[in-house]
Structure formats: structure tokens, C-alpha cells
Amino acid sequence: MDTLQDVLLRVGSYSPRSRIGFYDLDHTSSPTYLTYQSLLQIARQYGALVQSLPGFRKKQPAIIYLEDQRESICWIWSILFAGGVPLILPQLSNLPHQRQKQLGGLSAMLQKPICITRHESLCLLDGHGFIIYTIEGLMGLKPTLNNVLVGATSRDLALLILTSGSTGNAKAVRLTHGRPFLNWVGPDHVASLVEIHLQALWLGVDQFHVHPANMISSPTLFLDIIERHSICYAFAPNFFLKSLISAVLSEPRGRERRDLSSLAILVSGGEANDLNTCKMVSHCLAEMGAPKNTLTPGFGMTETCAGAIYNVDCPHYDVKTGRRVASVGKCIQGIEMRVMKQSLATDPTVTAPGEAGSLQLRGEVVTKGYYGNPETTSRAFTVDGWFITGDTAAIDSTGRLTIMGREKDDINVNGINVSSDDVQAVLEQALGKKISRIICFPNNNNGSEQVTIAYTLPAGVTQVAAMAAIEDGVVQTCLTGFGCRPLVFCVRRDTLQLLPVSALGKISRPKMRALFEAGLFNKDVAFSRQCIDQLRSHRSQLVSTAKKEDEMCLIHDFAQTLDVKPGTIDINTSIFNLGFTSMNLIRLRHRIETRLNTKISVLTLLKYPTPGSLAAILRSQEYSASNQSVEVAYDPVIVLKPTGNKTPLWLVHPGVGEVLVFVGLAQQLRERPIYALRARGFESGQAHFRTIHEAVETYLAAIRKRQRKGPYAIAGYSYGTMLAFELTKRLEAEDGPGTVRFLGSFNLPPHIKERMRHQDWNSCLLHLAYFLGLVPEAYANNMNLEEFRNLSRLAALNTMLEAVDVDRWVDLGLSRQDIERWADVAYGLQRLAIDYDPAGIVETIDVFHAQPLQGAATSQEDWVMDHLDKWRHFCRTSPRLHAVGGAHYTMIGPEHVVAFASKLEAAMEARENFYERSRR
């Protein structure tokens, strides 16, 4: 049995009941299944289709860029059966110049390969010479069964797997059919593809793939799935094990003990395993019935077909030897290791037991080189054929390996390698002349690697304010571009001489790390933290004499709502800059109302978002001392972000009419003003809209008042999509096609009247309660809607109030009148659309699709293809579809908003770039 195709042929033919289970994003109750037999049929069928595609070349790379695990696995095998070499492209960077750099390097290396992706990803892959085929387009073709398997030998190239992830210049590691394939994560990671998928396939046993976001957001799900399916072999990196222990310790006492007696091996790799975590995990697993040595730290690389060295006596051996981090153990069959003295490059010598040096490997499981990159291949091997890993390590007297660190400059963030060069380059560009020097390096002082940024100020610059601005810029850039929160500090003048600068002026990262971890920059870190904290406190003190008592009270209200120090807030600090969520705003309103014994609308907070402006309006003549609420004339525009140099984004409210849901999203979008349109009817005396036309005319006038001419960018959440579509038609009719550069639909199809006709006041009340988190999803989904809809409004309200989470109700400070008025607004909006039929054409539309509402579609695929895709009938160009995390009500909630904002910004940028190119 020489090739991967042989493995699937055998298992697909003789193990028909064995299968792969997939837990898709936000679907954790039960998996969907694909049998090995079905996988074989798909591979043969679509392998024939791939063979027929223009541009496909046998024994040459074919790129796969898909987010869905099931689709990725199916197309890997289809390309293999076509005789190609599959290469899975990792998730592309959110930063355009990084993405261009990565794709440009791949295009040059692979020489115009075919690329299989989804339509929504086309905008990310433009201009790089790939021959692109979309799943949507391929599904329209009719493949024939391929009965002829392309001949391959054990020495032929089987797979290409990229190193350096999505953050550096990728190297494509060559893995041939003859390597023993022995993991978990995304299919673009060697551990998932080789150590879990292929190993389980070889053995003919079931395997389960869970979307990483499911695990990271709810770590104990990992244990639940192990128990549910009697898993015997799994993988988890050190950062996840820490989260897992924290989550387990937070579970309520008395919870029924899980049964993990089936679990034999839990491999952990990707970064060093600190011993304290190992001991806690091992103890936890043992209490649940697993063997005491279940946790198995290991070492592997893409170049070694994933895990190749394992510690099968953890944590006992490491505790006995007094280690701080766990050993990664001994080699499996098919690989050898040695550690060489780093200082003797011309005359290499093996280190003594326990002595640190350069780790080198060789054997059948080690790659023979990098595809299309002979120079890098040559540098990666010694003259006697050993692969240089780039790691500093030591082998003890028992033959066990311990990894000490890396010689290379990558930083391991949550198991993903981030290029120090890339982080540093982006920061240098973002900060410009604000800094003199900057260096990015890892530190491991807290047991897990952290991106660390040290910088020096330009000559003559000593302001503490500059340090605060630099720290804010660094943190924002790293979170947005690399998904990590760095440690940032300024190197003081007194410490400049410690910087390890070479004769050429380069700061050595390994030396900088060593100095930092030795504590030589502790005073600099403390100085930076102290200066920035004092600055914020000082700013508060400078204006304290000018603050009136009501302003001071509001500052404390803001601080207590967010659980921060009042000194970090002054009278001009906006709620939008403080990170207020929609629920924080409602809590803030409740806190102020309770203290003042009066009613204040959320609109007042949105219109007057600083302690100073809010205090002024509350003490103005509009404020009634007789405990009546502040009256604010209706203006649909809520300014979520007033400044920015990109096209402003207009966000149209969902069916509940409120715009609080956009607060978190606005905080994630940079460099453009953000405005939201709020429905009429929330405030006392305001009439609801009577027609869609009236709403559109009102919103159009408000938009024109703020932004007289285009280009425009508009998006609607759910129901708001319909209004955004109508607004776009009006703007394009008045200013011409293309004046709206971006139109976004957040999970709403064009045809909505049937669903609107099923909405009455009671069902609007129920959806509102779920939207606010007053009742759980299960309550809303299990409600007998017919019975509930037949209740009177009073009875429906009483029924709902009996089921609400009392603590949350009190926390939000809601009253019966509040919820009734809100339901009135929602119901009024639904009634406007009971006879709505979409008509007309817009230039473009981008559709962001999440899990649909219950009953809206039979499946996610049905929702996208049979409902959302109908936007093509109302658009001059093909709609661009973007899959996002979460469900209809949670897609821009706290758990998913960062990823959603990244996709939204990328989509807007793609549209803007397209129009700019077309103008040239």
C-alpha cells in the first residue's frame, strides 16, 4: 500500500461504516457525518472533474482556499485522485499588503496553479495569476465517475503544506506518499491533516473535526465531545489547555463528573508545555477516568509530517527531574535527532547530555525539501543530510528531548506562528515618525509566548502623551492585524546602551529576548506603565477643578459600569471610545436613572456620549425637575464614530428598530466615520413610520444632511437590509449608478413579506426578549408559537415576564413600559413590509450570511443558495457572499464581532479598490 489513494480505496471499500464527523461553527449539539465510502465516491467523481479543468496539471500543485472543513477534506482527496498535489492555503491576512506579499510569493513559486475556492473569497485572490474555480461554478458541472486511478509511487509528491502560516513568506513543504502519516486544528495545519485525519483513515476508525472557534469560545466542549463519542486520541496546544483548566475550575460544584475513560492519548504541541499546566491537566483527566499519563507533549513540524517526538511519561518524569517545561520525549520510528553545538558551524560537534544546542533531524518522515525553492532547501540541511529545525534544544542522559526556544524569529501565538518581521514592518509603517527604533520579539515569562514590543522615542521627544498614543497604536494594530495583544514598553534613555545592536545597526531579537527574560528591562516596563497610568490620572485631575458635581457623578457612573478606575475617564471621554457594548449602555442608563430618580432614554446617551455633554443636557432647561424624561427631537442619525478618512459607513437598524447592536461593530472598524439610523417611535410622543416610503424618505434626508454627496457605503442588519436596498436605489437614481460603492446585507434575503406576515405583536415581543438576552434561545425555540400568538398582549407580556432572567432584567433596568414600547416599534416595522416586493436594480451587494432564524430555511446551504442568492436578480453584478460566524442574532455580538468586522472591512476595501481601478 504505497499511496494515499490506496489508503482511501481500501478503507472506503472495506470499512463502509467508518466515518468523519464534522461540528460546524456554532453547531455543537451533534455532528454531520461523511462516511469513508462516500468520501471515496466524491474523490473519484470530482477527481474526474478536476482532471478536465483547463489549467490543471498532473503531479503539479492545486490550491484549495476554503473555510469549511468538510469541503476542504473532500477537495483534497478529489485533487489527489485527479493526480494533482493539493496545497491548502491558510486564512489570508486582513492586512492588504501582507496578503499581496504572500499571494505574490505563492504565484511565483507555483507557476499559475488552479485554485478552488468559494465565490465570496474571489476579492481576496485577485491579480496573482491563479486559475480560479469557484465551488458554486463547479457544482453546476456534471462530472463523470473516474474509474482510472492516476498512477503514483511512494516517492511521488503527495501534499504541499505551507509553513509560516498566513503571516510570513510561505515555504511549501514536500510530503510524499511514502511517509508514515501520523492530529487536530484546521485542515491547513499539518497536525489536523496528517496526525488526525490520515492516521484515523489508515486505521479505518471514526474521526471528528470541530470548528476551532467552537472550542476556543467554550473550552469544556472539548471534554464534552470526548465523552460523547468515546474519543481515544486528541490534540490540544498549551494555550488551550490553560483555558480548559480555567473553564473546568469555573464550573459549578456538584456537576456530574464526565467519563473520559476512553481517552488514551491527548497530544499537546505547537509550543512549550509549562509543567504546572501539565500537572493540572493530568490530574483533571485522571479524575474523569483517563490514565495518569494521557497528556503527551510532543514535537513536530510540517517538515516532519507533524508529531514525530513524544513524551509518554508526563508529568511524572518531568516532576521527578524538576523541569519548568515538559520534555517532548523520544523519537518515533523513522526519525533520528541530534543536538549540535551552535558555535562550531565549521566543525560541528554533538553536545553533551543536557547541553543546549541546535536541534537537527533526519529520517524517513523528514521532508526532503521545499517545493520550488532549492536555495532554501540547501540552507535547511547540513552537508551530511540533517535537517536544521531552527530550534535550540537539549537531550538529557536518558535520550529525552527538551525544547529551549527558537533560533528563528517567529513568535508562537496560540499555536500559530507570527512573523516578527511582519509585525515590526507593519508597526513601523503605522507609527512612522512617532518612534525612533522599534523591535518585536517574544517573551515567555508567563509560561506562554507573548508578542513584545520595545521602542525608543525620537531625540527631543519626552512627552508621556506620546507614549500613550504609541501604546494605543501598537495594541490596535496587533489586535487587528495579528490577533494578539502585545506587551509594549518604551526603552528609557538610561537603558539604551543595553540594546543588543550589531555593527550594522540591527537589534538582535534572540539577545533582546534573553535580556528581557533576565529582567534587565523590568524598570522600563514599570516606567512605561506608571507614566501612562499617571497621565490618564493627571488629565483627570487637571480638569477636576472645572468639573461640576454632576459631571463627577457621571464619570463614576461610566467607570462603575465598565469596572474601571474613574481616573481613566474625563469629561470629554466618549462611551464609544471606552468600549461600551449595547448592554453596557442599557446598564449605564439604569445606573443614572436610579441615582437621579428620573427617566433617561438610551437615545440621550447616544446623542450626548461624554460625561460633559450628558451633564449639560441633563441640567439644561429641557430637563424637568419633576422626574420627567429628557425630551429629544427625533433625528434618526446616531454618530457612532465621527472621524475617519475613508468612505463613511451608514448602518440601518434591524427589525427591533434600535441601533445599540452596532456599538461593538463600530469600535472594530477603523479609519472611517460610522453612522447608524434608528427607527422612530422609541420616545414619548413619537409616531411610528406609516410606510416604507416614509421611512426611506426620512433616512435619505438625514443621510444627505450629514453627507451631501457620494461615494456612499450602506449596510443593513436583517430587516435593515431592505431599507438599505431602497435607500441605495434612491441614491443611485439621483446621483447615478456607482454612487453607492458598497451595499451590505447582514443575513437578509430580498423576499421577506411571507415572514413578515407571520409576525404579530406577541412574536415581536418574544424575539425582542431573546435579542436582549432576557430569555434563552431554547425558550424561544421551544415556545408553542400558536398558543403564544393567540394570547392577548397583556397575557403575552405576563407570560414572557414570568420566564425572563430576573437578574438580567434588573441589570438592564427595564420596565414593562420600556419593553412594551420597544415591542410596539418592532411590530410597527414588521407591518410595513407585509406586502413588500423587492423591485429595481442596484450596482453591487455584499451578503454576509450566518445561521438563519429557526424556520427560515431547511439548512445553511438552503438559506444561502435558495434565499440569499436571490439578490442576484436585483443587482447588476453578481452578489458577493461572505460566510461569518454566529447565528442571526449573534453574528455581530461580542463573540463574533472582531471576525465579522474584519470581513466587513475587507469587503468594503475590495469594492473601493475596484472603483478606484476602474477610474484609472
TrEMBL record:
Return the PROSITE patterns for the record. AMP_BINDING, CARRIER
Sorted keywords for this record are: Phosphopantetheine, Phosphoprotein
Keyword Transmembrane among UniProt keywords: no
Every copy of the Carrier domain together lies at 545-622
Task: Give the Gene3D superfamilies listed for this entry.
Answer: 3.30.300.30, ACP-like, alpha/beta hydrolase, N-terminal domain of ligase-like
The GO molecular function terms of this record are:
phosphopantetheine binding; very long-chain fatty acid-CoA ligase activity
Q: Name one GO biological process term.
A: fatty acid biosynthetic process
Task: From the UniProt annotation, give the residues forming the signal peptide.
Answer: none
Q: What is this protein called?
A: Carrier domain-containing protein
What is the organism field in this record? Hirsutella minnesotensis 3608
Taxon lineage: Eukaryota, Fungi, Dikarya, Ascomycota, Pezizomycotina
